[in-house]
Structure formats: structure tokens, C-alpha cells
């Protein structure tokens, strides 16, 4: 029987505050490493996240980037989960594309679409992005995203 944290898509351990990155690749690798370190994906999933960004930018607008794998990544995902990186100073994904929030997604068997939809609805409101950017605790971020 899984413990309470094992059943969560976004455990507290998957949220990292006050992160700093020089490049989008560093941010994507960090988002993937959180997922790998906490048992959600194989480390090879990180390569797929980087490849996804090469093919099509994972910057989704509104100061948010959502790195995720490829259509062929499912075998590398152990269980569905999210990682959230708060980058108060931002990381540049392109001209006029500064991400303050990086959300790594690993969705087993198409659950990434459901997670992406829920996150998108919350982060369409720039006030919610700013709340995450300025949060001082993982709990504050969890409350904004309302994901367990």
C-alpha cells in the first residue's frame, strides 16, 4: 500500500524554492532531476524533456515553462508526477519569454494532458504566477496549484 506521499502527484519534495538558472536547458534538467530523484521517472526522461524543448519550446507564456517528455517517453515514466521550480529572477526562454515558474510534467498513459489542463487553468491568471514566484513555502505553492 503506497504511503500518502507516494500517492501524490505533487509531493512537497517536488517543489524547489529560490532557484537560479542561466539557460532554459539548466531549468529543464533541474525539473527533470527532481522527478528522477523522487522516483517518478528514469533519468533518461530528462533527455526527452530537453529534446521536446528543441522541437518546440516548452515556454507556454505568462512567465511559465512546462517541460515534459515526448510521445515515446511513457516507458521512462514510473508514475505520474509534477515538479515545480520557483525562479524569482526568471530564466530567459527566448526574446520576451522569461519564465518565473517551471513545471516539469511526467504523465503516465496520457495523464499529462489532464495535469497540463489543470495547471493551465490556474496559471492563465498572472496573479497566480506571481503568487508562486513570491511564495516563501512549498505549502503556498501547493495551495495556489491545488494539486495533490
Q: Residue ranges: pLDDT <50 for 5 or more in a row?
A: 1-6
Instruction: Give the CATH class.
Output: Alpha Beta
Instruction: List SSEs in N-to-C order.
Output: HEHHEEEEHHH
- Tally of individual helices: 6
Compute the average pLDDT.
Answer: 91
**Strands, total number:** 5
Characterize the structure shown.
The chain is α/β, with parallel strands linked by helices. The protein has one domain: Mannitol-specific EII, Chain A. The chain contains six helices and five strands. Strands 1-4-5-3-2 form a five-stranded mixed beta sheet. Helix 2 runs antiparallel to helix 3. The radius of gyration is 14 Å and the shape is globular.
Task: Lay out the secondary structure.
Layout: H1 4-7, E1 15-16, H2 24-37, H3 44-55, E2 59-61, E3 64-65, E4 81-94, E5 97-106, H4 111-123, H5 126-134, H6 138-145
Parallel strand pairs: 1-4, 3-5
Antiparallel strand pairs: 2-3, 4-5
Quickly list its features:
148 residues, alpha/beta, Mannitol-specific EII, Chain A, 5-stranded mixed beta sheet, 6 helices, 41% helix, disordered N terminus
Outline:
With 148 residues, the protein is of the alpha/beta class. It contains six helices and five strands, in the order αβααββββααα.
Amino acid at each position: 500500500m503506497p504511503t500518502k506521499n507516494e500517492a501524490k502527484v505533487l509531493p512537497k519534495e517536488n517543489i524547489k524554492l529560490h532557484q537560479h538558472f542561466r539557460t532554459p536547458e539548466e531549468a529543464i534538467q533541474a525539473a527533470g532531476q527532481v522527478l528522477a530523484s523522487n522516483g517518478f521517472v528514469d533519468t533518461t526522461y530528462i533527455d526527452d524533456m530537453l529534446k521536446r524543448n528543441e522541437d518546440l519550446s516548452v515556454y507556454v507564456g505568462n512567465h511559465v515553462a512546462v517541460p515534459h517528455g515526448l510521445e515515446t517517453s511513457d516507458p521512462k515514466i514510473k508514475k505520474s508526477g509534477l515538479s515545480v521550480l520557483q525562479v524569482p529572477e526568471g530564466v530567459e526562454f527566448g526574446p520576451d519569454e522569461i519564465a518565473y515558474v517551471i513545471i516539469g510534467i511526467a504523465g503516465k498513459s496520457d495523464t499529462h494532458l489532464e495535469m497540463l489542463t489543470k495547471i493551465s487553468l490556474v496559471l492563465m491568471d498572472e496573479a497566480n504566477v506571481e503568487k508562486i514566484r513570491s511564495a516563501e513555502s512549498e505549502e503556498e505553492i501547493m495551495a495556489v496549484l491545488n494539486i495533490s
